[in-house]
Amino acid sequence: MFVFPHPDPVALSLGPLHVRWYGLMYLIGFVSAWWLARRRASLPGSTWKPVEVDDMIFFCALGVILGGRLGWMLFYGTERILSEPLSVFRIWEGGMSFHGGLIGVLIALAFFARSRGKQLVDVFDFTAPLPAIGFGAGRIGNFINGELWGKPTDVPWAVIVDGVPLHASQLYEATLEGLVLFVILWWFTSTPRPRWAPSGLFLVCYGVFRFLIEFVRVPDENRGYLLFDWVTMGQILSLPMIIAGLAMLAVAYRRREMSGNYVRA
Known about the structure:
By secondary structure, this protein is mainly alpha-helical. The protein has one domain (2-187). It is 58% helix and 6% strand. The chain has nine helices and five strands; from the N terminus they run βββααααααββααα. The chain has helices at 21-41, 50-75, 78-83, 98-116, 120-127, 132-145, 169-188, 197-213, 233-255, and strands at 2-3, 10-14, 17-20, 159-161, 164-166. Helix 1 (21-41) runs antiparallel to helix 6 (132-145), helix 2 (50-75) packs antiparallel against helix 4 and helix 7 runs antiparallel to helix 8 (197-213).
């Protein structure tokens, strides 16, 4: 066990400008996704051009920020948006939803695919391994901020917060939803796979990881447990991801259509 040091959430102050660690984690996520996508696009046999990656990352950044904020307000902050509608724009006050961000990215990628004449599923498959580094960085940002703690525990690796040993659920998520998810998907997409397979595997892996971690994570105070005194909003939102991912994998390996992300031999 170790005592949580309560680090300063502000990484750098330049006069009135305060750069927070959480904001830097978003930057790390976008930059890493851009670099990884450009690396894949430059490989022999890829149908992607590096310049297309730049536009795609811009679309995704808008989708993450707008979708993440709107998703949190709808899924977790309904009462707040009803009492203060303009609070939806106050992103600096915190409150971002992964599931809302995912929906925002899917919509943004749909616009991107249409504008570039690409098959939407090929765009989804190409981007499947890219956000994992950002997921992990974001959870580290949550840890630095001292938020989203897990339940009290007596495990040897607990973090003592104000005298109470807690599961560091943010670090669990950083490991599973960040590092492990990236390794699995980067390896899986390192060779051509059938259409829908990378996207399906992403949904299954993330959904399972998030569903499991919710067992040790404290639910949002304004939601609590929604069913049976253990089912959380995160689990309810993750379950459709798992089901959809399994269906996509089944379709992918039944049809075995070649991905449009590779030049046909």
